[in-house]
Amino acid sequence: MKSIAIVWAQYGPYHFARVAALRQHAGDMTIHALELANHTGDYAWQRGSGVDSVITVCPNSVYEELPFNKVFLGMRRILARNRVEVCLLPSYSPKQCLAALLAAKSLGVRLVMMNESHAGTARSGPMGTWIKRRLVAMFASALVGGQPQKRYFSSLGLPAEKIVTGYDAVDNDYFAGRADAIRNRRSDFRLQYDLPEHYFLNLGRFVAKKNLETLIRAYRKFLDAASPRATHLVLVGSGEDESKLRKLCDELQLPQYHHPPGSSLRSTLNPPGVHFYGFRQIEENPIFYALADAFILPSLYEEWGLVVNEAMACGLPVVVSQNVGCAEDLLEVGLPNAYLNGDAAGIQKFGLQSRTRQNGFVFEPDSVEVLSRGLSCLAENPKLRVAMGQQSSRIVKKFSCQNFAKNALHAARLATQ
């Protein structure tokens, strides 16, 4: 095996870091980084170093608008020209990914499926599941997120011994290093970004599945519980639900603070409320993570949730919906060891024993009550936040880009056996 291709819809910061690690571990194998298009409607990434090493199948195109035939012919030409033997592909849908799959299959290339889906994100009926089984059977092996994903694709007929975990990774060293540097200058960054002394953080798109309405309602309930600490809620992102979220804040009589890039607003001395920071590039995100008290991801469903990896790499406790694909693997069962020697009454006070994990809490995504109790518990227990943050740093090391690279190569080898 001398020539491997790894394909994504469009390369962004996550992908560059993973491919760099893959090339470090590839030895004398050539790694071809392929993207189907260099623009996408979902993400406004600014792409820096690494772009020159990526082959774009359909240049000057928007991924969502690509016709099937253009992807099929472009993929077939590039794979043949580079004599690719194994191709790692991001699933089998939508039609653009299916075209790439069929192009590789037509050349006899061995296929590795990269996927984050699990039973909680499956939306197919009996006929859809039948079709999925046929598509999954076209892959020789798979690289998936974690245990829920492995169980799901095993249920669709892919042998468990051909499924490798560890697909979802971020550049842990980058986030950890940036977080440390920012905390060393915390006063400067708080002033520059007008960040509160204490806040809960959510970072991502403002769309329905992110369930931010539940987070805002839980935050209102948290404030009504008369927590002794003035903790704000910071939302970093943008999307179609933004006006709805702002309207909800008005209905709940929550103060709102808006911080578009370049804003000079100074609001941190005002009453606790909801801060809207808009979309930010990955270079700025560690600032928000580093100075937060905890990270919250309340999604109704989520294939994985790489923002949880980022938050953990920055040493934060995380509060994650049990429907998020990473919850089982990234939130380990039990109390943090550093806290077991102390007083666990803080957790018992809020009735969170069954939902407590080493590095945070899990909760049902429709439970405003449980989420608000989790927020109160973290706000009232700074030692618990520290202990959980330390466990986050430990756990996320198992999900590094280096681990991704080793497992991707293992999956490639399995595909040839």
Task: Give the topology, please.
Layout: E1 3-8, H1 13-25, E2 30-39, E3 54-62, H2 68-81, E4 86-89, H3 95-106, E5 110-115, H4 126-136, E6 141-144, H5 147-155, E7 163-165, H6 172-183, H7 186-193, E8 199-203, H8 212-224, E9 232-236, H9 242-251, E10 256-258, E11 274-276, H10 285-290, E12 294-297, H11 306-313, E13 318-321, H12 327-330, H13 337-340, H14 345-349, E14 356-357, E15 360-363, H15 368-380, H16 382-396, H17 401-416
Parallel strand pairs: 1-2, 1-4, 2-3, 4-5, 5-6, 6-7, 8-9, 8-12, 9-11, 10-11, 12-13, 13-15
Antiparallel strand pairs: 14-15
Helix pairs in contact: 1-17, 2-3, 6-11, 8-15, 11-16
Report on this structure:
The chain is an alpha/beta fold and 417 residues long. The protein has two domains: 3-169 and 400-416, Glycogen Phosphorylase B (Rossmann fold); 172-398, Rossmann fold, CATH 3.40.50.2000. It has 17 helices and 15 strands. It has helices spanning 13-25, 68-81, 95-106, 126-136, 147-155, 172-183, 186-193, 212-224, 242-251, 285-290, 306-313, 327-330, 337-340, 345-349, 368-380, 382-396, 401-416, and strands spanning 3-8, 30-39, 54-62, 86-89, 110-115, 141-144, 163-165, 199-203, 232-236, 256-258, 274-276, 294-297, 318-321, 356-357, 360-363. The strands form two sheets. Strands 10-11-9-8-12-13-15-14 form an eight-stranded mixed sheet, with helices on both faces. A seven-stranded parallel sheet has the order 3-2-1-4-5-6-7, sandwiched between helices. Helix 2 runs parallel beside helix 3 and helix 11 (306-313) packs across helix 16. It is globular and about 65 Å long.
